[in-house]
Amino acid sequence: MSHPPRAETGETAEMRLKLPAHATLIGRVCRPGIGPSVVTLRNGLVEDITSRLAPTVRDVCEMENPADFVASSRGETIGELTQTALQSVEEHGSRSGDRLLAPCDLQVVKACGVTFAGSMIERVIEERGGGDPAKAEKIRSRIGQRIGSRLDAVAPGSEAAVAVKQALVEEGFWSQYLEVGIGPDAEVFTKCPVMAAVGAGSRVGIHPGSVWNNPEPELVLAVNSRGIIVGVTLGNDVNLRDFEGRSALLLGKSKDNNASTAIGPFIRLFDEAFDIGHAGAIRIHMRVTGRDGFQIEDVCDMRHISRSPSDLAAQTLNDNHAYPDGFMLFCGTPFAPVQDRDAPGAGFTHHIGDRVDIEATEIGCLSNWVAHCADCRRWDHSASHLMRNLAARDLI
Q: Model-level pTM?
């Protein structure tokens, strides 16, 4: 749906993180002249708690009780959250002050796809349309009503799912996306390399060759090396619908580009007041505001996910695959916008300069601005750079 222009649509707008009160939060800030630092939030103030005991967020997540450690740690207060958030907003180059980073560091960034019924249908449409948004509308009208409602209540891998699969095969609608949507095995892929994700306030990148793309607001699990989910945050799993629609073998090129993943603003660690049960009931609100005045909004209700977050984590780390530094896991999204933006039947696609706000009351708000990948902050700081920096600071 299109709406009149809103205020604060440009990259100079102040970013509001909307972090929950009384939550145990952990994140990362790049401090000028110092480097990446582990931080928490106390009374609206950002506090650097980097230490030899916990030089990385990975180290905190590996502890027996990460929330207790963060709550009891005392460090250096480095400024007000509002100022740090403002410094994080990218305009035409780097800001000089503290900058929010993605709240993970050495964890691998993994993602699950096709975990909501609505998302399953749209992936089938992408595949059948070969990445052409004009063809997609015709296919959507043909199959959407026939199979969408039949998949909503189907438990993946169940006898009912097998029956639905057989029916779809007979109708000529079976797809690799429906296989991972209602079959026994979830789709799990590597979204980006270690430390390639950007944080709140950064530009998020789309490939310049893409003409059909959209944000994907998702719950992101923070999972340690033992497979324990220790907290959650928000993420934007940017999707190039035309690339992936042309061929599933283009998934890597579609998903992993410079700045094509945003995570943040902070990880909310599980404690006595917030656990996986609360996380599984989160409603994630997404809003895209364009410089052209176009706006869309949608809601992702985690209660409608086809596979539980715990199941997705177990399918990622198990006897067959280990992650010594843990991993961040995108849980998938039902968001697949079909509102026309540029022409009738063309559906939605990003414009450069779009502001994407992904918000959950329990976690906060992740705001990013859309640019071409080459125009985003280039990924130039990975695990080797972090280790050298920490060693120079006598933290390892």
A: 0.88
Mean pLDDT of the chain: 88
Q: How many other CB atoms are found less than 10 A from the CB of residue 216?
A: 24
Cβ-based neighbour number of residue 43 at 10 Å: 9
Round to whole Å and give the CA distance between 104 and 366: 14
Contact assessment for residue 287 and residue 295, using Cβ atoms and an 8 Å cutoff: yes
Residue 161 has pLDDT above 80, yes or no: no
DSSP string, 83-100: HHHHHH--SSS--SS-EE
Residue 191 banded pLDDT, cuts 50, 70, 90 = very high
- pLDDT for position 338: 81
- Chain mean position to CA 5: 26
Q: Are 87 and 12 in contact (CB under 8 A)?
A: no
Query: Averaged over 94-107, what is the pLDDT?
Result: 84
> Measured between alpha carbons, how far is residue 184 from residues 111, 162, 223, 307, 320 in Å?
17, 10, 22, 10, 16
Burial of 276 (0-12, 13-18, 19+ CB in 10 A): middle
CB < 8 Å & 24+ apart, contacts of 156-163: 156/181, 156/182, 156/183, 156/184, 156/186, 156/306, 156/307, 157/182, 157/183, 157/184, 157/185
β-bridge mates for residue 204, sequence order: 370
Burial label, 96 (beta-carbon count in 10 A; 0-12, 13-18, 19+): exposed
Bridge partners for 395 per DSSP:
none
